[in-house]
Amino acid sequence: MNQTKKRKICFVITSTIHYARSKLILVKLKKRDDVDLQIVIGGSAILSKYGEVDKWLKHDGLDVSAVVSITLEGGNNVSMAKTAGLGVIEFTSTFEKLKPDIVVLRADRYEVLSAAIAAAYLNIPIAHIEGGDVSGNIDESVRHAITKLAHIHFATNEDSKKRIIQMGERPDYVFNVGCPGLEIAAKNNFKITNRIINNMGLGARVDINKNFLIVTQHPVTTEIEMNEKNIIETIKSISELNIPTIWFWPNVDAGTDRISGMLRRYREKHNLDRSVLFIKFLLPEEFISLLKKTSCLVGNSSAGIKECSYLKIPVVNIGTRQDGRMRAENVIDVDYDRRKIKKAILKQISHGPYPSSDIYYKPNSSKKIVDILSNINLYIQKKFNDDNV
Amino acid sequence: MNQTKKRKICFVITSTIHYARSKLILVKLKKRDDVDLQIVIGGSAILSKYGEVDKWLKHDGLDVSAVVSITLEGGNNVSMAKTAGLGVIEFTSTFEKLKPDIVVLRADRYEVLSAAIAAAYLNIPIAHIEGGDVSGNIDESVRHAITKLAHIHFATNEDSKKRIIQMGERPDYVFNVGCPGLEIAAKNNFKITNRIINNMGLGARVDINKNFLIVTQHPVTTEIEMNEKNIIETIKSISELNIPTIWFWPNVDAGTDRISGMLRRYREKHNLDRSVLFIKFLLPEEFISLLKKTSCLVGNSSAGIKECSYLKIPVVNIGTRQDGRMRAENVIDVDYDRRKIKKAILKQISHGPYPSSDIYYKPNSSKKIVDILSNINLYIQKKFNDDNV
Amino acid sequence: MNQTKKRKICFVITSTIHYARSKLILVKLKKRDDVDLQIVIGGSAILSKYGEVDKWLKHDGLDVSAVVSITLEGGNNVSMAKTAGLGVIEFTSTFEKLKPDIVVLRADRYEVLSAAIAAAYLNIPIAHIEGGDVSGNIDESVRHAITKLAHIHFATNEDSKKRIIQMGERPDYVFNVGCPGLEIAAKNNFKITNRIINNMGLGARVDINKNFLIVTQHPVTTEIEMNEKNIIETIKSISELNIPTIWFWPNVDAGTDRISGMLRRYREKHNLDRSVLFIKFLLPEEFISLLKKTSCLVGNSSAGIKECSYLKIPVVNIGTRQDGRMRAENVIDVDYDRRKIKKAILKQISHGPYPSSDIYYKPNSSKKIVDILSNINLYIQKKFNDDNV
Amino acid sequence: MNQTKKRKICFVITSTIHYARSKLILVKLKKRDDVDLQIVIGGSAILSKYGEVDKWLKHDGLDVSAVVSITLEGGNNVSMAKTAGLGVIEFTSTFEKLKPDIVVLRADRYEVLSAAIAAAYLNIPIAHIEGGDVSGNIDESVRHAITKLAHIHFATNEDSKKRIIQMGERPDYVFNVGCPGLEIAAKNNFKITNRIINNMGLGARVDINKNFLIVTQHPVTTEIEMNEKNIIETIKSISELNIPTIWFWPNVDAGTDRISGMLRRYREKHNLDRSVLFIKFLLPEEFISLLKKTSCLVGNSSAGIKECSYLKIPVVNIGTRQDGRMRAENVIDVDYDRRKIKKAILKQISHGPYPSSDIYYKPNSSKKIVDILSNINLYIQKKFNDDNV
């Protein structure tokens, strides 16, 4: 009898949000008999200040195959670029050791680009989730560069699928499976409590059973000189509104140290501690549960565009970071301008929940991804396709 | 009075062929008063076994701003990937020091990808020469990934220009300027001699004033296990033909050590020294001058597709490395099969020179590139464009 | 006439304390006509959370020749080791570019080891300040390893000079010049004020014109699992004493993130904000001025052993980090034990200032170092010497 | 019953000569029930041009735990230094993954220093073989730097043991076990044949059953500008002697590309192919067997000082590379001077075999090393010892 070789699928997790959106995929892959699941964690996902993803994986019964420690200090463009370089070196050693049949990557960060380059030069086929989206930031360039290195594409919406094909990818390897993060959001039953939230942060106590805002504003790496000036507009608008607010610290991108610095300095100067609770991170299910309770999400997180479109949450999206991403009607876009931000927040609060949109949602996203990863024919040599344009 | 700031244009040279094709651009940039030319050399271009480009630059009166030493030994996929990673780190430090306004890159090698990533994360606009081409090898993926990180595109032919625009690049920043290497080939007046050639190599003496072949066959990184088997077909066909031949050693890509090993072993076994002169590299003007004299170029070099189309040289292109690249009628494509290779070579010899083609040629390529680099408005934040599709 | 070539002396600064102790040397080197001073900054010295040394240099009129950005996030053993590795790579590129005649290094940190290795393999003679000391921590091993790579040795005390010679170094290249940091401390006229101090930190207001403690306790990298447990003893003793205290955050060594985490958590739990002001860093002259005013320095900083011996300050030295370093009578050594710490602090407060010791002090340290660096004959090939043992 | 945890002993092999001298240790460690042997290979040992050690290990039934690919191209000081830096990064990841209880290193090369630094910062005790020797080259500095990072020392002779203790190491952790390479030489029964030798190389046929010389001359990294000039003296002396000679290519140190270049160029010019067979490498047992048959070993290899002292082989040691190493009477030292080299070779040939010396030999070296590695109490924190001086 012929014993079929298990397909070795290597899932790379370099940020906590990646894990938050991928958990169902991992759990399903682990259950399959024909798959040997390898999980590689690294980058900011393993740093204590951005949430240590190894603890979450352990909690969910998932094993780690390798840890890739590559993040440089600095929170600036140089540290971001060098982290990418060190990432290529370390992912190369890691993939050479693990010898996966496929490497699965998500989104558009520099650690993800590192892993893509390592896999590409080692002739390992790449599956890429969330390609084809458009946005601002350096992520816009990097996302499409990764698409051009990848072999299998899991777009989260129809527009992105079209763009991926337009860029010359083989149509039979491009799938619109919806955003796996929304499937998780849809199924989430976790009940967040005041106790959990208020033990996690610093600053004011916030009662999440009453009206409250969530703010999460990341640096824009292509506007590096403006990040401080821009965050002040948000700080002042929140200070002046004086509504209970839960504020998440920014991610590891270039500019993060400066934004964090502004937050620390202005916390006191503008009395933010009166109304604002500062939190570093929550577990994915906690975050989704909290999101469902907020009156309005403010900032420039992709969760505002994606998760909130389905969860009906009003969103005030500030600045250029999400430029061009397909939106449902739950989003009001505003400039870096405290008066406009304030006005938009008040408008969203008075509007309340929106109808649920399915532009990013499809049922069974994770099942579809897992089925394709497990069964699709793999190829190495890419070929530009322009038949469908 | 207002003193205009000079535009700092940083030209990156990581392979000798890059210099061979870019010399006119560099010389013209250097002469401009409004440009501060920075030349960064590195990668295989600075290694003695692939030709030390610093000596060529010195010879041509061009100064080097920085040297980037990054190439790992091994000649395999791991060394190629790690070189790319180390390259990102070192180009980041270099660009951070030089602070150029534009970085100019050419083609599709891993060192070029390194430089592109470094520049992208440092928010330095990238100009890219020779994007949009299609081919085999890992270069195919990497070339398009670089396009998605770049801001200004100098395509060498109309098809490539269309592909670049199709991939979502701004049409007003995509230019078909022809291949600058062909402009150099067209203007080349150097007269190569038997003395030069026969002093450079090992093996048989070849009289370049009579019929002779040139062979240059590089490894295909995506067919790594097949490279040895494939090169043997070429070795045997050349051995059996027993026509005077000048054979260039392969480049630094993964697989090169194995191909070189085969050449060394088979040189003796198949009596190649009877008819074959082995050469490491020639100066660009020497190579073009030699090319003009050959009866047929055999192998998988892009010079066969590009330079030879204009220079009327018959070419036997072996295998997949140039798959998909636009061809003039001078090329016969064959598989890795000694009989087919032999047959094609004999056919090309008896055919003799082809009509000159201008699919890759435009007059004044270098002037056009220099004018655009010096004057075009620069931007940082990229935006996917699909208006023109 | 014969024009003498200037000697290129490259001073490497990778921590703020290094600059604090070396400023006079730099200022004197800069003034010499026969010296071309190169200053390379990098490592934790350029990170905002450990004090940005470039601003200090600018303030003091000193130019930076190169910036070396190498520090990995994590605050653990892995990040420390990888930073050392990246440091070797980047210092190599930097020295290759600057081509110094001598590289000057201080002390025993991993970034310093990096620079030593880079210089050693590039055949650049190394001058090393503060070698020969003994202590705990990984620094103990690294300090002596650097000695064995160095060519000129500036010991800060007689015992260390003897140890360096015992290790096989040439006696005519080993000099006891005293600790240049103490010369700076001796000459310091800066007057620190309540206004400066209380604007720099978070927590309680401290009146520095009354009794107050300074605490500065760094992680011990060779006791990595114990650092949290050990710091708690200090936290509790300070909490129980309830004396006004200025507490400096720990340095970048492995374990720092955990110690910082403990401090953040326990600040609230043990009411540290009642009596403790937390400060990240002060300018060197500010720190010395503050030191002169404290009733007692508590923790494991080398300043307690060195600067305080001369400045008469009572010191409670906790744990193993300074094990074996020569002490004056101003130091009481205690275990990680809150009762012993408390008892020792109270004893030191009631004792008051000690007689000034000159075990680490010599007048004109900086002048001696500068004269030797400028004039000594340089050699490359080292040779083990055992004549003097 | 209490199950004792196996001690994880990690043996690092970065050059083929390291394996050649360590094989018996590895075989014995593998057989022990209380030891979990980990073998890490890397550096030049895995490159095809210096002998692929993985094939030798496989042949000897030893498994590889990890491969560390770090060597940069260039054969110069920069590539040597950067390889060291990349080595620190990769050995850190490797040791972090393998979590050994001891890391075992040998000798003084840059890859070995890398591994020592990685282990030191990860708090893994280091056992070091062949410390305490003196020599020329950068190896002299690096060897002692490694000693100062190591915890257990296996000196190969009494002088070296004394030096290690003098440098401040604990005497109870310093052992003179003799050179394990000599134990291998002593036990070697392999019979080398003309067929093996002449199939391995290029150039003249050499009959090893008659008189013949062996030449092996490595670059001296601290005399980098002189290496070409120096090797010419040897080339000319061998050319003029016109005695059958087996010449081994130099190792990977800085300067190797230039020496190899000279050899290639002069091979023809000085008719070396008349009498010289060039060989890249032999298996350890082949090399020892060949050594026993030669009339004289010429060059600067440590085998001339160590293995040949016991094997009675006459040696002409050229230049500074072995300066200071303890010698038996079998060695004649000469400068880089063709006449002196010729004269010394002729003198050694006419002298014939010397009495066997045991200055580097002790029976059961490998058993002693294995027993100590398996049983000795381990410690992390080092402390300078000067009791015994």
From TrEMBL, chains A, B, C, D:
Top-level taxon in the UniProt lineage: Bacteria
Gene Ontology annotations of biological process type: UDP-N-acetylglucosamine metabolic process
Residues annotated as domain UDP-N-acetylglucosamine 2-epimerase: 28-373
Gene Ontology MF terms: hydrolase activity, hydrolyzing O-glycosyl compounds
Xref: Pfam families: Epimerase_2
SUPFAM superfamilies according to UniProt: UDP-Glycosyltransferase/glycogen phosphorylase
Coiled coil (residue ranges): none
NCBIfam families: NeuC_NnaA (TIGR03568)
Protein's name in the database: UDP-N-acetyl-D-glucosamine 2-epimerase, UDP-hydrolysing
Organism, as annotated: Candidatus Portnoybacteria bacterium RBG_13_40_8
